[in-house]
Amino acid sequence: MSVPSHRPTGLSRRSLLRGGGALALGGASLAALKLPVFEVAGAAQDPASCRAADRSGSDRSLVISNWPQYIDPRNNKNGTFQGFSERTGITVDYTDDVNDNAEFYAKVRNQLGTCEPIDRDMIMLTDWMAARMIGLGWIQPLDPERVPNLHANLIEPLRGVQWDPDLRYHAPWQTGLTGIAYDASRTDAVGSFEELLTRPDLKGRISLLSEMRDTMAFMLKVTGADPGDFDDDEWADAIDRLRQVVADGHVRSFTGNEYVQDLAAGNVVACEAWSGDVIQLQFDNPDIRFVTPEEGLALWSDNMIVPNLATHTANAEAWIDYYYEPAVAAKLASWVNYICPVEGAREEMEKIDPSLVDNALIFPDDEALAATFDFMPLDDQQTAQYEGEWADVTGG
Fold it and tell me: Which of 369, 359, 23 is nearest to 164 (CA)?
């Protein structure tokens, strides 16, 4: 596997993800989706009536909130950021103030829940939170005629998601995988989640992710259920299996991004892992491997969405369309090293950095992407029950 040539500095985007699991995506579309509502009565809005006049034509500006370290350097005159402004004449006020889905949600919920502006034209949030806000009517629809590159170039595995199957409200920014990582210098290959949970030589030497949706998606797979469509009995089987694994002392810890330090130090030799982290680990230790488990992979995205009362919607749509040009997407991917969601970017990468073309964590093959699965949207009752039982087992 190729190693990226541009090592990002500082904290990675995924290292800052806290406050809820990433909703895995798949290709299946549900014709009629009833999105769960998580808020008190009165918080839901109608985006058709809670909208501002679009000043894009007279005010060539755009305000964006994104995660840290999630774009190529903005001071690079040959980079994508300055390229957008030079081409469009749009000045971008770009802030990396999304450090946590739940934290950012808490920052804007009062305004969005009462149809007040949050002074942003675009925000970038992970699938489950994007779905939550779309379900509450807090997000403006995109004009498909203004984002033709999105509809033409989005990779197939990210199409038809349960919570926005027609790309009416969201556009994936970057994408990652949840699977297994192991240190080949310290243990034999680990090929499945079942093996991770049962192999005697791994007892007490593995970690699982502390985000419920990530880990329980795999536990549901292990116990024979579909994470995208399961009932309370199947959930009970999965959480009971995890409870037994924990009681047996097989799991050293449940962690967020801290597992990267444990894996690097040898405190764990195998773990549930995010693909973006593994790329970073491989810079210092080429023995770190990322595995597609026999059970499949969870595929998550962070998404560009336009909040209610945004005043530069057309400018935001211009940004989306620009970043869905394959050449632009390849330049971005060469720096951030996450999965590129744009069809054709791999071919463009040949011109930018050929060493990245065959990196399976930036450009997974069709076989790997075909092995991804959903974690179904949860209603209020399920959320309370499942999160409570998860906390009881994991000590969270």
Answer: 23
